[in-house]
Amino acid sequence: MSEIAPLAAPTWLVEQASELGIEFEPGDVEQLGLYLALLLDANTRFNLTAVTDPGEAWRRHIFDSLTLVPFIISAEAKQVIDVGSGGGLPGIPLAIALPEVQFTLLEATRKKARFLEEVVERLNLTNVRVVADRAETIGQAHSAAGHRERYDIVLARAVGKLPVLLELTVPLARIGGYVLAMKGEKAPEEIAEAKAALHLLHAHVVRTTPTATGTIVLIEKARKTPRVYPRPPGEPNRAPLT
């Protein structure tokens, strides 16, 4: 990556982060600014985000990601996976804010996965690894990759509607672990649509929490995922569980 200067953080960031219980360590805000600069620079070469205004990106990308911090802390999570990480959201901002937590960024598109690897190296994020694969593949019962039923928390942002998202994420959570789905104003409708998927996957919605940037749906995995889930790549999207 070429030399890119960090983007200056907006004046409201530290105060609003503090309201979430986040106290930045020295260098954290600069790291967030450098990540955002790298993201917007790479976005000029291939599609990573529709948000290109820096001020809007601080709110809709960085702060939106940080709204998950209280959930991760309260769950005392040590292993977290970001499914469909794309340009690194929410995983990279969270990894900067929570260096004691190990993050896995799962991204099937090779070009995006390479970008994530470059960012991890540039920011020296020793608590992050990138996996270039699909959730349907690493989550299967016969997979030797060691991801199934491993993670304390599974993150999903802009991955798809809840019935599809659940099949991709719940198999990766340990029993008693959680899925954090970042949703918008239609979250209640999606939850209603996901009733069958929740039942089949042995999971339930604990609560929904509105934030300044959306709605967080907290889902708990109650029992072991049946071996048939997730189905082969593409199948969850083609025929969502109903």
Structure explained in plain terms:
It contains eleven helices and seven strands. By secondary structure, the chain is of the alpha/beta class. The protein has one domain: 3-Layer(aba) Sandwich (Rossmann fold), CATH 3.40.50.150. α2 crosses α3. The longest helix has 15 residues. The mean pLDDT is 96.
Brief rundown of the structure:
By secondary structure, the chain is of the alpha/beta class. Helices cover 38% and strands 19% of the residues.
Q: How are the SSEs ordered, and which strands pair?
A:
Elements: H1 13-19, H2 28-42, H3 54-66, H4 69-74, E1 79-83, H5 91-97, E2 102-106, H6 110-123, E3 128-131, H7 135-138, E4 151-157, H8 162-169, E5 173-183, H9 187-193, H10 195-200, E6 203-210, E7 215-221, H11 235-238
Low-confidence stretches: none
The CATH class is: Alpha Beta
Largest sheet: 7 strands, mixed
The radius of gyration over CA amounts to: 17 Å
* Count of extended strands: 7
Shape: globular
CATH architecture: 3-Layer(aba) Sandwich
The CATH superfamily appears as: Vaccinia Virus protein VP39
Structural class: alpha/beta
Share in β-strands:
15-25%
CATH topology: Rossmann fold
The ordered string of helix (H) and strand (E) elements is HHHHEHEHEHEHEHHEEH
**What is the domain tally?**
1
Strand order of the largest sheet: 3-2-1-4-5-7-6
